Amino acid sequence: KTDFSVPSNLYLIGSMNTADRSIEALDTALRRRFAFKELQPQPELLAGAFKPNHLPVELDKVLRKINERVEFLLDRDHAIGHSYFLSVRANSFEQELRNLNRVFRDNLIPLLEEYFNGDLSRVYMVLGPDWIETPLHVVEARNLLFLNDNEPIDFVERTVYRRIAGQEQPAEAFIRLYE
Questions:
Q1: pTM for the full model?
Q2: Which terminus of the chain has fewer Cβ atoms in its 10 Å neighbourhood, N or C?
Q3: How many Å apart are CA 19 and CA 136, to the nearest integer?
């Protein structure tokens, strides 16, 4: 039963992604009790203080273009943040290119796969053919699945998309994202 107070110069700052709606009741409770300030990605930071020293890729344009596509396919609450790209800058062209490939391979592609519930055709729409491949032919259901000749099926053929694995992309692949 002792009084307790918090100093007036103490701020509690929490963050949450608006795309995460799985705990909506908690989200609503927090919104009733705290002030919210929206923080959108700041691609301009990638053209300034965090611009790569050696890589000819304009990371701010890469991020803007990816986010335009994500917003079109989903909404602006799913925008990719600039922080993914802050670790690209390095002491050599080769290291910067490795870092950028790592960001795509280990962060962006898995995040986009999650956003689109594993639908790689949507990831393809955002990143294009340098990261997601489509076979030269569509897979015909009757040639792939065990079906009776007279068994009705809902689809006849389907385009199959796959991640391009194990290959580092050249700088030109990143430039193609915004050109």
A1: 0.77
A2: N
A3: 35
